[in-house]
Amino acid sequence: MARPHPLYRFYERRLAAGLDRRRLPKHVGVLVDGNRRWARQSGTSTEAGHAAGAQKIVEFLGWCHELGIEVVTLYILSTENLKRPAAELEPLLGIISDLMDTLTEQGVYRVQPVGALELLPPRLAACLEDLVERTAGNPGPHLNIAVGYGGRQEIVDAVREVLTDALEAGADLRELAQHLSVEHISEHLYTRGQPDPDLLIRTSGEQRLSGFLMWQSAYSEYYFCEALWPDFRRVDFLRALRDYASRQRRFGC
């Protein structure tokens, strides 16, 4: 890997020094998009693109830890991605498993899978569930790994849990319907108990959320970056944080 130009390093340090740490987001969500396109442009395999993306995740989490970001949610694999051809999907699942092993070895992040684990291959689902226990005592940041995730499915699952809990408690469903609130849904999301994301970043130049944290992102700030995920640099992240810190959040007002 080529060493960064001294002017680039100077610019990066200047950006970091200029950040107001009091205005940094507590929860950052990232759609890690562009691995396949990066592979095509690099003349390499799709598997190599996903491997480069996994390595970037490790690097990115180091930046978040350094800056004191408390919660990070990474959109890695959607429910739609599970329908990809086996020739692409199986290596990708293996790369995700290797990534989980790397995060465990680092002993830093408290990992929580968010998604429909029942849709995943049993081996990967078991790996993710085991990861929760193995990282529970780590200092943090708290890391949500969105694998087998769909925003609509999350809301359906939350409503299903609300109804199931009510039935088990012997509640009247008509009364529940009359008093159903935003809080009822929020308390049953995959990310229950966590702050909603302050900042959502998507790489690769696409300007859409693809169902990512649909409920939680109602008042989030969005930042779209042209860089493909494997090419995402620390300076790109610092620019996103600088842009976020300069905004006046309105929370729907």
TrEMBL record:
Q: Where is the signal peptide?
A: none
- Transmembrane regions listed in the UniProt entry: none
Q: Where does Mg(2+) bind?
A: D33, E221
Cofactor binding notes? Binds 2 magnesium ions per subunit.
GO CC annotation: plasma membrane
- Which Enzyme Commission number(s) are on file for it? 2.5.1.-
What PROSITE patterns is this protein classified in? UPP_SYNTHASE (PS01066)
Q: Which cofactor does it need?
A: Mg(2+)
Q: Which GO terms describe its biological process?
A: polyprenol biosynthetic process
Q: Does the keyword Disulfide bond apply?
A: no
Q: Which InterPro entries match?
A: UPP_synth-like (IPR001441), UPP_synth-like_CS (IPR018520), UPP_synth-like_sf (IPR036424)
Q: Name one GO molecular function term.
A: magnesium ion binding
The record's section on Pfam families has:
Prenyltransf (PF01255)
Source superkingdom: Bacteria
Active site residues according to the UniProt entry: D33, N81 (proton acceptor)
Which residues are substrate-binding? G34, N35, R36, R37, W38, H50, S78, T79, E80, R84, R202, R208, L209, S210
Which UniProt keywords are listed? Magnesium, Metal-binding, Transferase
Subunit structure of this chain's protein: Homodimer.
Question: What's this protein's family per the entry?
Answer: Belongs to the UPP synthase family. Z-FPP synthase subfamily.
| PANTHER family, A to Z | DEHYDRODOLICHYL DIPHOSPHATE SYNTHASE COMPLEX SUBUNIT DHDDS (PTHR10291:SF43), DEHYDRODOLICHYL DIPHOSPHATE SYNTHASE FAMILY MEMBER (PTHR10291)
Q: What does this protein do?
A: Catalyzes the condensation of isopentenyl diphosphate (IPP) with allylic pyrophosphates generating different type of terpenoids.
- What protein name applies here? Isoprenyl transferase
Which organism is this protein's natural source? Kocuria flava
The gene name on file is: uppS
